[in-house]
Amino acid sequence: MAQRWLPWLALASLPVAAPLSALEPPSTVARWAAACNGCHGPEGRGSGAMPALRGQSADALAAKLKKWQEDPEAAAATGHVMARFSAILDQETLRALADHYGAAP
Questions:
Q1: pLDDT of 6-33, one tens digit each?
Q2: Which CATH number fits domain 26-44+51-105: 3.30.930.10, 1.10.760.10, 3.40.50.300, 3.40.50.1820?
């Protein structure tokens, strides 16, 4: 008789499944932030030659991204790789990224 309950006990010991909200795809900002973190280090805290994004003001970050968007040739001429990335950001995502990194030290 105890053997019949063994499979049920095994199922009961499994962790509870993640809520459906955890299965939703990440937001646009989360996807872009993951790309930023690839060069700028974990959570944008800096990585070697790449500057930290955290600790800068959101307005300063937004201004830099907008400057590169407005004059990508000048940014690219200086060898600045960010010209390519900033060129494809829409204004809403640009501001959201600036707020994401500028919000926390």
A1: 455 444 554 555 555 555 666 888 999 9
A2: 1.10.760.10
